[in-house]
Amino acid sequence: MNKVGVYFNLWKGEEFIPYAINQIKDYVDYIVVIYQTESNYKDLRNDLSSTLNKWVETNLIDEWVDYKPDFDCSENYWGIHNELKKRNIGLQKCLDNGCNYLLDSDSDEIYNKVEFKNCIDEVITGGYDSSFCKMITYYKYPDCKLSPIENYYVPFIYKINYESEFKPIHNIDFPVLVDGKRRIKSKVPLVFSEQEILMHHYSYVRLNENEMLDKFNNASSRLNFSNQRISDILNSWNNFEIGGKALIGKDQEFSTKKTDNLFNIKL
After folding, report:
1. Which domains does the chain have, with CATH numbers?
2. What DSSP letter does each residue of 80-129 carry, written as one string?
């Protein structure tokens, strides 16, 4: 019997998780949140344990894990090291609960329920051990998207066993460009088209400027961003109006368009 497990990587952005789960809950068998009150760079946040316990009590999730970051390596690798450890804890939790397929997700990633169901079925019935899709990135508001969509992919569903592991793998071994901290060795990939499925990424949608600054200061890719670049992005974000230019990443600028608030997100 095939079972699909979901792992949510949580530092901040918990406001998106209920929306994400609402779209996929009918098609997955187990959901775990790996959460931390101390970031990968030693920042602290308000404790969420009461919220997470309520999510368990109301059957929104099955369980959560309080992750304590490991700083026993060079400071340059704290982000990458801890993110890989968190993802592997999520993977093992899914395996221990009988799952043989995994959706690895960050807190601000949402899928359309119809696309999700259709594509999971295709992965399983087609005998694929990995799958990938593109994403729509939203900027500042849940009804504002970057245009065109990024030339970048996110792993969708992996087939997993007790030999599976998130680890640094050269992207040359993958059919598309994906995050280096979200790679599991696989042999039979399926790359979905934009028409089949898209991940809706609320990467630049946050409650306020402080939450945006926290996003960059504690990202596993923090070393990729100079202080000046972060300052420029925050200045752009603060003064942004839909239809204007959006600064993202190390050196990118995108046009933006108003779109539907597909999941009725309220922040």
Report:
1. 4-202 (3.90.550)
2. HHHHHHHHHHHHHHHHHTT-SEEEEEETTEEE-HHHHHHHHHHHHHTT-S
